[in-house]
Amino acid sequence: MNRPQFTAIAMAALASLYLSAYSPPADTPPLYKNASAPIESRIRDLLKRMTKEEKVGQLSTLLGWEMYEKQGDSVQVSEKFKKAVSEQRIGMLWATLRADPWTQKTLKTGLNPTLAARATNALQKYVIENTRLGIPLLLAEECPHGHMAIGTTVFPTALGQGSTWNPALIQQMATTIAKETRLQGAHAGYGPVLDLAREPRWSRVEETYGEDPVLNGQMGIAMVNGFQGMNLNSGVNIISTLKHFTAYGVPEGGHNGGSVSPGTRELFQVYLPPFRDAVKAGALSVMTAYNSIDGIPCSANPFLLKTVLRDQWKFTGYVVSDLGSISGLRSNHRIASTPADAAEVAIESGLDSDLGGYGFGKALQEAVDKGAVTTAVLDTAVSRILRMKFAMGLFESPYVSPEKAGAGTRTAKHVELARQVARESVILLKNSDKLLPLTKYVKNIAVIGPNADNVYNQLGDYTAPQAEGAVVTVLQGIRNKLGTNAQINYVSGCAIRDTMTNSIAEAVEAAKRAEVAVVVLGGSSARDFKTEYQSTGAAKVTATSVSDMESGEGFDRASLDLMGRQLELLQAVVKTGTPVVLVLIKGRPLNLNWANANVPAIIDAWYPGQEGGNAIADVLFGDYNPAGRLPISVPKSVGQLPVYYNYKNPARHDYVEMDARPLFPFGYGLSYSTFEYGSLQIQVAPTPTNVLVTATFTLKNTSGRDGDEVAQLYVSDNVSSVVSPSKQLKKFARVHLKAGEQKTVTFQLRADDLMLLNPAMHWVAEKGDFTIMVGASSDDIRQKQVFSLPADIQVRM
């Protein structure tokens, strides 16, 4: 043995003796349990201790409502949960607290907020005490317009939220949703949905903020900031999961999950910006969409999940599949021949977590065992999940207070906020001869229609069962407003879809006796216990479907007409000669041609949530001046589709049968006040790397009533190197003005507000002329002015 070798061996032996002599006591907690250690160090330490099976298990998100058993006021973990922990070593659950007909959880079998906290505590306690490493669970819940659990506050669905054009209010709403969710022991909220709704036949339009990337992006930022706050370890904030990545809302023929084929430029300029804005705001989770884009499924698209999301946008969170979308790579898209192949292509493409637990699990384990998925790829995905658990403080504080959960959910303050969001979402579409607001001195009023007193039709999809009296319908709202001073006669008249039974004759008689008839029609996303559901939770639509649903996941439409005998009911009531106010409660734009031509006053409330009845009554009787604006265009015919406002040049021409314009355009909405725009001035201050364009104008309330105006700024690139939209919303503000008051409104644009992807696929604000337009809607421009950029400005994204 030569001396250098001897010396090296001797030194190694001495080092070994030294480490043995000074090794930490056996009862010293491992580094990953040291709360003061850096998170990245804790992740590395924990990964070194985990087996391949434990790592794979961390990526599985099983259906949570199957994991507890309730007996009276006692909640304990189920045998199914124990088996999942033992055999699958699971790291996450989804929808543990969800209750609806799909989960078969009712007010009786589901959990109130207090019991929900006990349930999540029991689940955490079991997994921490009965697993080798004691890794806590990450619990995800549905939270698009309230936590989808019993006893929580139900806000308007996203289309209504978008109609407020008030991101600050939506952030306040999101903060409330996050608090109610986290107090019950959950950690991630699925929402916001940032898909653009340019196909109103699609079943999930109600879940979106509308058709525009800028409006959707601002609402997405508001939701992310409200959900996540400034500190995930606050005990009242949750991770925001952006849905559905991407271009999910424009499927061919309106078929949910169908393929789409936007060009690359269209993808980057139109469909990706809302997600980009929300990621830049700090969103920590993204959910892939069911659809494919140009033949590549979104759950197996490395360009989207790696190049765009991580390399370009610097996303640091985790990517989760939509329910069953990994196995769908094999069964639906047919790009994988075996479950292991599907798991491999998904995780290699950048998908980290499996919603459902059957896309990864055994299939991913098989792919790892045969070397198709490397340890490095597996560790990367697992580290992204663990990072969230450490950041939320779950290793130190996995439990919540049942008392706080019970006291902090659906409080009076939260209910009042739901009423305010609903108020601000209400859109006045028509008001001939100033029929509205109605006088409170009315003595006889008829309230008619299938949505006048239907609790669940008012709430939209992704809503839990509601206790008696928790939801205020339009009928109850009018009763609350008028008390016993008026005779209120209610007749449903018909159903949403059913044509076999009706009480139209009775409705006509009630209208004849009344001074005014409020007719409440529209649609329904209310699930029932008779409907059959797919494994993804979407409803099965068959010739024998019994549900009254015509909207909500799985209920795609071929037409946009009012279903059942609703139009017949409306026509019969109008024929009586009694003044009619049409109130619409629905989840998508519907055909309103006859109503617009024959009904003097129309209000659109989408799905207004639990306080919708009070909010609508506030608007009907003038206690609230409506200022909601359409976030989506309302077509005259499905033959016009797509009919979104910011179509690309050239200008659209009319059809043989009709013009090409929508019935009601994007951004449209009336008020009980009138507003005047004036004195638009533009200042341009370019620099070599950016520009500041300042648009200033006056806005005056020219009426005798206080009110809000939604001022909207649109931009047109007059000459561009690639075809541009005819106009594009860039800025907006909801401005409150007292009667006769005038304010100066200022909007500022930067280079990234003016940029496009040029022929070389570079982001550039191009030199030349731009037209700024300000007004009350995309089709109601009050002021416009041209300005010029003196030189191209390269924009780094």
TrEMBL record:
Domain of life: Bacteria
Keyword Amino-acid biosynthesis belongs to the record: no
GO biological process: glucan catabolic process
SMART domains: Fn3_like (SM01217)
Signal peptide: 1-21
Residue ranges of domain Fibronectin type III-like in the record: 709-778
GO molecular function: beta-glucosidase activity
Parts forming coiled coils: none
Gene3D superfamilies referenced in this protein's UniProt entry, alphabetically: Glycoside hydrolase family 3 C-terminal domain, Glycoside hydrolase, family 3, N-terminal domain, Immunoglobulins
Keywords: Hydrolase, Signal
Family to which this protein belongs: Belongs to the glycosyl hydrolase 3 family.
Identification of the protein by name: Beta-glucosidase
Source organism per UniProt: Spirosoma agri
Lineage start: Bacteria, Pseudomonadati, Bacteroidota, Cytophagia, Cytophagales
